[in-house]
Write a structure and sequence with these properties.
Blueprint: H1 2-15, E1 26-28, E2 31-37, E3 42-46, H2 52-55, E4 61-64, E5 68-71, E6 74-81, E7 92-96, E8 103-104, E9 117-119, E10 126-127, E11 140-142, E12 149-150, E13 163-165, E14 172-173, E15 186-188, E16 195-196, E17 209-212, E18 218-219, E19 232-235, E20 241-242, E21 255-257, E22 264-265, E23 278-280, E24 287-288, E25 301-303, E26 310-311, E27 324-327, E28 333-334, E29 347-350, E30 356-357, E31 370-373, E32 379-380, E33 393-396, E34 402-403, H3 405-413
Parallel strand pairs: 3-6, 4-7, 6-8, 7-9, 8-10, 11-13, 12-14, 14-16, 15-17, 16-18, 17-19, 18-20, 19-21, 20-22, 23-25, 24-26, 26-28, 27-29, 28-30, 30-32, 31-33, 32-34
Antiparallel strand pairs: 1-2, 2-3, 5-6
Length: 417
């Protein structure tokens, strides 16, 4: 629902300036042009009217954009396809762009749902935001090696797109660039890419594998959200940050290797990855954030390194297959509901640097039989071990000064030392 809302908002917002765009300077053979420079004699192809209803489907079928046009006894070179030029021309099936064109503007082919064929020449260096958004008939795209970035939402909601070739010239993939491209099954990113934007591949639910090259430094928030068929992810060893909710709802994800270069894993990064069975967190990570692995109900084992200092709220909440966990001596705090509803968790080792155990931290861990709370702990939150129905042995360290009301009754009832 959240992805659908973002997509709808983006597309509606994108159309707002379109309603106020200026009219063309002249028309030749059914195409409309704006003069960019009288001195250089250059023009851009533009839309027919500043009223959106008059622009819908004003061109259709196969279209060839000319390299030059003659107007008022002057010859102009076509160097750009302007903003909204063919927006909502649903009958347009193919476009031939001359090699004089260097830029394709924002929303230039937005909602051209009948467009099946597009050749972008090597002369093009810039493709605008949402340029091909919602071109649902487009099946394959080859981006020329003159392009250095794929901008925000450029190919969003191109549901028929099954093949994309990204050249080595591209260094960044923008926010929502391929969001909702449900026909994509695999994606190879070149070694030139250094950043993957927020929601870049969100909702690509046909995507089965992704290799993130060593050149990538950051993976944006929700980058692969809802890629339900994504089974394997290889993350390059230059990535330093994985954004919040980057892989949320990737329910088919079975394996992920997090390299030692990663220092930050965002909140909810692997939330609801129910197919994930094991995770090894590298020594470079110092914090496990809020809901990072929440509801990964297939997770049976997790390795927390001795560099982690805090385990956030809901970090492993609902990991109902997790059998045991060792919290290393580096950890000082265990957040609220960090291991809540880990129903088969039978063994917990709490490191001797932990000072705080949050509310409901181990609540409803119904298979937990014993727990030793080290001397370092000074505070145990409300309901911290509530509904741990198999708990028969509790050792409470001598530094505990505060125990939440329900936790106190429950723990003292089973205290053995």
């Amino acid at each position: 629902m959240k992805t659908a809302f973002i997509r709808a908002f983006v597309l509606i917002f994108a159309l707002i300036p379109y309603l106020y765009a200026t009219a063309s300077d002249f028309e030749v053979d059914g195409l409309y042009y704006n003069i960019l420079s009288e001195e250089d004699r250059t023009v851009e192809v533009t839309h027919k009217s500043n009223h959106s209803d008059e622009n819908e489907n004003y061109v259709s079928g196969e279209m060839e954009i000319p390299r030059r046009v003659l107007y008022n006894k002057k010859t102009y070179t076509v160097t750009a396809i302007g903003m909204y030029a063919f927006c909502q021309c649903t009958g347009l099936t193919s476009v031939t762009i001359p090699n004089s064109v260097t830029s394709i503007g924002d929303c230039a082919f937005f909602r051209c749902s009948g467009l099946t064929s597009m050749t972008i020449p090597n002369s093009v260096t810039s493709i605008g935001e949402t340029a091909f958004g919602s071109c649902t008939g487009l099946t394959a795209v080859t981006i020329p090696n003159s392009v250095t970035s794929i901008r925000n939402w450029t190919f969003s909601s191109c549901t028929g797109l099954t093949s994309v070739t990204i050249p080595n010239s591209v260094t960044s993939i923008g926010n929502g660039a391929f969001m909702g491209c449900s026909g994509l099954t695999s994606m190879t990113l070149p070694n030139s890419v250094t950043s993957i934007g927020e929601s870049a591949f969100s909702g690509c639910d046909g995507l089965t594998s992704v290799t993130i090259p060593n050149s990538v430094i950051s993976i944006g928030g929700r980058a692969f959200e809802g890629c339900t068929c994504l089974a394997f992810v290889t993350i390059g060893n230059s990535v330093t940050s994985i954004g919040g909710y980057a892989f949320i709802d990737c329910t088919g994800l079975k394996s992920v290797t997090i390299p030692n270069s990663v220092t930050s894993i965002g909140d909810g990064a692997f939330m609801n990855c129910s197919g994930l069975t094991s995770v090894m967190i590298p020594y470079s990570v110092t914090t496990i954030g809020r809901s990072t692995f929440s509801s990964c109900n297939g997770l049976t084992s997790v390795t927390i390194p001795n560099a982690v200092t805090s385990i956030g709220d809901f970090a492993f909440n609902g990991c109902s297959s997790l059998l045991s966990v060792t919290i290393p001596n580096s950890v000082t705090s265990i957040g609220e509901k960090a291991f809540w509803r880990c129903t088969v968790l039978a063994s917990v080792t709490i490191g001797n640097s932990v000072t705080f155990i949050g509310d409901w931290a181990f609540g409803a861990c119904s298979d937990l039989t014993s727990v030793t709370i080290p001397n370092s702990v000074t505070s145990i939150g409300y309901h911290a071990f509530n509904n741990c129905t198999a708990l028969t042995s509790v050792t409470i360290g001598n530094s505990v000064a505060s125990i939440g009301a329900v936790s106190y009754t429950h723990l003292r009832a089973h205290e053995t030392g």
